[in-house]
Amino acid sequence: LDISWFTESMSLGKPLKVEPRHCLGDSSSSVSSDKATQETPSYACQRRTPLHHHNKEIVDALQILALSASFQGSEARYLGFTRAASVLKCLPFTLQSAEEVKDLQFCGGHSKTVIQEILEDRVCREVEMVKNSEHYQSMKVLTGIFGVGIRTADKWYRDGIRSLSDLNEIEGKLTGEQKAGLLHYTDLQQPVTRDEAERVEQLVKGALQSFVPDVQVTMTGGFRRGKQEGHDVDFLITHPNEEALNGLLRKAVAWLDSKGSILYHHIKGRSHNFARSSTMDGHETCYAIFALPNACPEKSPDAGTIQPDLDKSPPRNWKAVRVDLVVAPYSEYSYALLGWTGSKFFYPLLQHFERELRRFSLQVKKMSLNSHGLFDIEKKCHYPATSEEEIFAHLGLLYLTPSERNA
Ligand code: DCT
Ligand code: MG
């Protein structure tokens, strides 16, 4: 199978007209175009990754193995499976045989065995074993709690905790965030729809604009990448006059709280220690659980039907929804927008597209990228940017729209 047309289309290997250095972006930019077309670009930020792709079964299987590896603390295996899955998401056709991936980077070895088994038998024994394992199942439940990362879940697992009800034994040791996560677990496990996200947006904008009428609020995260559902709703807040942002988040959240719209919140203040870090960000952030009123209470699914009198609790007219609110100074806004657009693969780990972009910056460009800016380690200077396009240009990468960042 000749895959050169595919690798060419996904390699973003053609130079941008604007500036000669806008080519493939890494050392391989110097190779001949013939060779470049034979190679899958190494970094996900060099490929267009659409939201919908042609190999869901295989990608899902590889991502289960990646998740399981991360639950076991194996970063290398996690990355191996994640990268294979990410490359397959760019494939513009449905795989028929494992031979077709032989020239694709990251799709050899263990991943190739998985691909082959699924193509031949429709199932992969290892994936089935993982899905049925007590460790994987418990870790999925426990890391699904707001405020619980892999390390905490694994410690609990080693202490004999397997399910939510087991947590009653250590209730006194849970953080406020975890208690709220547990209390609203069922709601928070339900995906947030785009319609719900838009209603959260109205609430958030209303609160912020009551203090600063021309504040800028942008929905980021998966919804900006075109997803129709998410596990939360992410917003980025900014204003050209940075003084207008002082205290704004706290005031808006207190206002929403006074209206009964907030079930839990925790505000992390701005930190100035991350200017040159490629792994940490320090924006002022509110991690919240909103009580989102139902769209049409009079048209709730129960309306008009006679309910058996089993549950005496009054019907709820709201749903708990996770919301992240991030404040970025105007000068850092484009970097924060790029960072908070993602994509992510699994919450406790750095998002795959973002992780790849930072890895590319550091390894290939010797620049440290985070949600505050871009720092050239050798030249010891910062690169200001007024748009995401400018950031890609600083890195010598072709621009990818948010919907092409679903790595
Ligand atoms: N992010 C970040 N720092 C964090 C958490 C997230 O920079 N501590 C970025 C990466 C992606 C973006 O914010 C949104 O994060 P998530 O909501 O976890 O990811 P998502 O892609 O929006 O996924 P979902 O649709 O499930 O919410
Ligand atoms: Mg999100």
Q: How would you concisely characterize the structure shown here?
A:
Helix content is 39%, strand content 12%.
Describe this structure in words.
The structure is a single chain. With 407 residues, this protein is of the alpha+beta class. 39% of the residues lie in helices and 12% in strands. It is built from 16 helices and ten strands. A five-stranded mixed sheet has the order 2-4-7-6-5, with helices on both faces. Strand 8 and strand 9 form a beta hairpin. The chain is globular. The chain starts with a helix and ends in a 13-residue tail after the last helix. The N terminus is likely disordered. Bound molecules: 2',3'-dideoxycytidine 5'-triphosphate and magnesium ion. Magnesium ion binds next to helix 12. It comes from Xenopus laevis (African clawed frog). Its cofactor is Mg(2+). It catalyses: DNA(n) + a 2'-deoxyribonucleoside 5'-triphosphate = DNA(n+1) + diphosphate. It is found in: Nucleus. Its EC number is 2.7.7.7.
Radius of gyration: 23 Å
Flag low-confidence runs.
1-38
Largest sheet: 5 strands, mixed
Number of strands: 10
Identify the overall geometry.
globular
Largest sheet: spatial strand order: 2-4-7-6-5
Which structural class do you get from the secondary structure elements? alpha+beta
Q: What ligands does this structure carry?
A: 2',3'-dideoxycytidine 5'-triphosphate, magnesium ion
Q: What is the residue-averaged pLDDT?
A: 87
Distance between the termini: 24 Å
Q: Which percent range describes the beta-strand content? A: 5-15%
Helical content (DSSP H or I, runs of 4+): 25-40%
Organism: Xenopus laevis
Subcellular location: Nucleus
EC number: 2.7.7.7
Protein name: DNA-directed DNA/RNA polymerase mu
